């Protein structure tokens, strides 16, 4: 055996890859490894959560008609911003800071609509915590004392590329970065070698949102894997061809594995090849595990009703959220769920009709998820995140003669979290009286990322890739006030 071949086999070949996986499985993850080696004896982060269910509503729900009611909108409806007793939010320096139009300012800036549009739904205080929510969430309101709201989120992209920004932290005009799910996958070992670590349900929502689940320079093996909720074919090309026995397939995979090993020796730095090897191995193991995970035959009738599987309006979201529970229950680290279609919540017109229908479609399933996780003891190990790419304007959108909707609004909006390591029945931050600006410093989307990583026991600043220096804003800062 040549010296190069021997060293490659032992150090950079499959032996080295297997050793790395074993170390990761034993808890020696990249972020903690750096902490252990840090000068001054930095204490490694202690994980509070094992898994994440990340629920994303594409299109931008209105924060004011969901989780951040603003009665001033009703009081001053029909007036322009400058006619109210409040500071005109457009004159605030925060407006330019948090509003980056995709076209340059010299060419076009997305219009600001200054005529106040009233709330389209009633609201009241909910639960023992007395947190205000609108009447569109009757089922979720029963779980409000489990939730932690962040009402001062902000981002910069005012177009739907913000869906990618919400997951990667980068504006459309900047260099793309890996998605949060990919960073979590990259930093953590597996809890179940027969299932992917990063799973996508219902997405990516369109060809333009692939970045929301992509791993980019981390390597293809860290990208999200979309699954279909069809037990007969949950993963394309993953079932054995008709007439092929398990024994024969096992021999074929063994031959492929050996050929890949030989190629890995000659091309030890080929990340695509390594990802392909892992994909073959994982696909073989997933053939039995994945169909079982997305089959609901063993679920009780009560559980099916809890998620709304008995109602056409809630069935799609319910199936995806029930599958998410089953996946984290089986050790999947990060499940990214898109319960509604691309842009569904984008209410430039007919906001009341649109949001009434969409809230009905997700209200019962998301409440069911929280209740189900809690009663199974999983809420002690799982973090649920519920968000959207931006909020909607306090002003009435007038484009095209509009009279019933709101435009995109990155300056301030609301997300909520629940589960392991988080406060319950808690509200963090606020927007101004009109719901325009996130007050104080607010939280850019990567603060949410940093919070999730911290709950998983990871430090974004220690998840570094040689030659890929990230900006400070890419890392964000954990929202300490949310931690229990």
What does this structure look like?
The protein has 484 residues and is of the alpha/beta class. It folds into 3 domains: 1-44, no CATH class; 51-229 and 299-482, Alkaline Phosphatase, subunit A, CATH 3.40.720; 240-293. It is built from 14 helices and 13 strands. It has helices at 3-12, 14-25, 30-37, 72-75, 93-97, 162-168, 180-187, 246-266, 271-293, 301-306, 312-329, 351-375, 445-455, 472-475, and strands spanning 51-56, 123-126, 131-134, 147-154, 198-201, 225-227, 334-337, 382-387, 391-392, 408-409, 413-419, 426-428, 443-444. The strands form 3 sheets. Strands 1, 4, 5, 6, 7, 8, 11, 12 and 13 form a 9-stranded mixed sheet that branches. A two-stranded antiparallel ribbon has the order 2-3. Strand 2 (123-126) and strand 3 form a beta hairpin. The longest helix is centred in the last third of the chain and has 25 residues, at 351-375. The radius of gyration is 24 Å and the shape is globular. Mean pLDDT is 86; it is low at 1-29, 33-43 and 104-108.
Compact description:
This protein has about 475 residues and is an alpha/beta fold. Helix content is about 35%, strand content about 10%.
Keywords summarizing the entry:
484 residues, Alkaline Phosphatase, subunit A, 3 domains, nine-stranded mixed β-sheet, 33% helix, 11% strand, globular, disordered N terminus
Please describe the topology of this protein.
Blueprint: H1 3-12, H2 14-25, H3 30-37, E1 51-56, H4 72-75, H5 93-97, E2 123-126, E3 131-134, E4 147-154, H6 162-168, H7 180-187, E5 198-201, E6 225-227, H8 246-266, H9 271-293, H10 301-306, H11 312-329, E7 334-337, H12 351-375, E8 382-387, E9 391-392, E10 408-409, E11 413-419, E12 426-428, E13 443-444, H13 445-455, H14 472-475
Parallel strand pairs: 1-7, 1-8, 4-12, 4-13, 5-6, 5-7
Antiparallel strand pairs: 2-3, 4-11, 8-11, 9-10
Helix pairs in contact: 1-2, 1-8, 8-9, 11-12
């Amino acid at each position: 055996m040549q010296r190069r071949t021997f060293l490659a086999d032992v150090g950079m070949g499959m032996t080295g890859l297997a050793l790395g996986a074993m170390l990761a499985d034993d808890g020696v993850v990249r972020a903690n490894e750096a902490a252990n080696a840090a000068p001054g004896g930095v204490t490694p982060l202690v994980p509070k959560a094992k898994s994440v269910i990340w629920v994303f509503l594409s299109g931008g729900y209105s924060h004011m008609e969901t989780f951040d009611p603003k009665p001033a909108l009703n009081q001053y409806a029909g007036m322009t911003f400058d006619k109210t007793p409040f500071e005109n939010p457009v004159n605030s320096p925060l407006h330019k800071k948090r509003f980056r139009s995709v076209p340059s300012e010299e060419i076009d800036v997305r219009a600001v609509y200054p005529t106040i549009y009233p709330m389209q739904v009633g609201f009241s205080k909910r639960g023992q915590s007395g947190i205000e929510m609108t009447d569109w969430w009757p089922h979720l309101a029963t779980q409000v004392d489990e939730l932690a709201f962040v009402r001062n989120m902000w981002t910069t992209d005012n177009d739907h590329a913000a869906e990618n920004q919400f997951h990667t932290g980068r504006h459309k005009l900047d260099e793309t970065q890996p998605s949060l799910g990919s960073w979590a996958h990259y930093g953590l070992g597996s809890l179940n070698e027969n299932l992917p670590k990063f799973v996508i349900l219902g997405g990516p929502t369109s060809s333009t949102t692939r970045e929301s689940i992509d791993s980019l320079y981390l390597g293809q093996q860290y990208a999200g894997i979309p699954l279909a909720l069809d037990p007969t074919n949950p993963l394309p090309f993953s079932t054995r061809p008709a007439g092929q026995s398990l024994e024969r397939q096992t021999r074929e995979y063994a031959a492929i594995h050996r050929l890949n090993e030989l190629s890995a020796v000659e091309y030890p730095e080929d990340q695509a090849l390594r990802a392909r090897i892992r994909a073959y191995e994982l696909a073989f193991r997933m053939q039995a595990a994945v169909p079982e995970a997305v089959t609901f035959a063993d679920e009780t009738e009560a559980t099916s009703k809890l998620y709304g599987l008995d109602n056409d309006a809630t069935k799609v979201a319910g199936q995806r959220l029930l599958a998410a529970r089953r996946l984290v229950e089986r050790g999947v680290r990060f499940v990214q769920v898109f319960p509604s279609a691309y842009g569904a919540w984008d209410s430039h017109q007919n906001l009341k009709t649109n949001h009434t229908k969409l809230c009905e479609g997700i209200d019962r399933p998301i409440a069911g998820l929280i209740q189900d996780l809690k009663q199974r003891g999983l809420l002690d190990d799982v973090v649920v995140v519920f968000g959207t790419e931006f909020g909607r304007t306090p002003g009435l959108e007038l484009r095209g003669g509009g009279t019933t909707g709101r435009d995109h609004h990155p300056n301030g909006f609301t997300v909520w979290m629940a589960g392991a390591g988080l406060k319950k029945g808690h509200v963090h931050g606020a927007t101004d009286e009109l719901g325009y600006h996130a007050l104080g410093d607010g939280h850019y989307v990567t603060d949410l990322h940093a919070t999730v990583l911290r709950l998983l026991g990871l430090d974004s600043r220690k998840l570094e890739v040689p030659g890929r220096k990230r900006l400070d804003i890419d890392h964000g800062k954990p929202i300490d006030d949310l931690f229990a």
